[in-house]
What does this fold into?
Amino acid sequence: MSKIKELCVKYREILLYLLFGVLTTLVGWVVYFAIFWSWKNGFAIPADDTTSGLYVTGYTIAQVIQWIAAVLFAFFTNRKWVFTKADRDVSMMKQLIPFAGGRVFTFFMDYGITLGGGILFSRWFPSLTAFLIFGKELNVCDLMAKAIAAVIVIILNYVISKLLVFKEKKTEQ
It folds into this structure.
């Protein structure tokens, strides 16, 4: 038991980052899927449609709103609970700007991986494009692409946050 505690203390930052990364992903996914599925249902877009202008418009709107919600959630949780050794003399805005900038980069990665992955997976696994869940037709390929994008984005966001945003205070020697 003491070994587990020792490992938790040693890897506290990474463990908390992963915890809040998962929570950030969940916040983003709830927002994304609520908006995107509402869009698709509201405009009666078939589950196997991944290329129409109406599909891409709804997808883009959902991605942007999801990104804003996730970035704000991640910034405040990372600043308060994850990167506790970061220089607290740095103003919140001086941290938020590069944080959001890094997230813009990973937003485009998320956007491309999810859209491209959804299209590719739909072609490779056509039987998963109209999967019935809770009485609704869902495209499981969209979910697979979103999951792959999430893993890549979480790793990149940690590196950006650790190296560029929440830098430790420099100590004078």
